[in-house]
Amino acid sequence: MAPPHDPSSYPPKLSQEELDRLVLASKDWSAANGLCVRPPPALVSSDQDPVGILAVNAPVTLFPSLFPRSCFEQGQSVQRAYNELYAKVSQDEDFLQNIVNDVIEGDEFIANLWKVHQRVKKDGYAHKLSLGLFRSDYMVHQEVTSPPQVKQVEFNTIASSFGGLSAQTSGLHKFLAQSEYSLLENSPGIDVNELPSNPTVAGLAGGMVAAHKLYGQSKSGKPLCIIFLVQTGERNVFDQRHIEYALRSSEVPVFRLEFADFLKYAEVAETATKELLYTLPSNASKVFEVSAVYLRAGYGPGDYPDSSGWEARYQLERSAATKCPSVLTQLAGAKKVQQVLASRDVLSRFVGKDSDKAKKLLDTFTNIFPLDSSTEGLRARKLALDETECQKYVLKPQREGGGNNIYRSDIPPFLKSIPERHWNSYILMELITPPPARNIIMRNGQLEEGGVIGELGVYGACVWKSGTGEVVHNEDVGYLLRTKGDKSEEGGVAAGFGCMDSVLLV
Ligand code: ADP
Ligand code: MG
Ligand code: MG
Question: Which pTM value belongs to this model?
Answer without folding.
Answer: 0.97
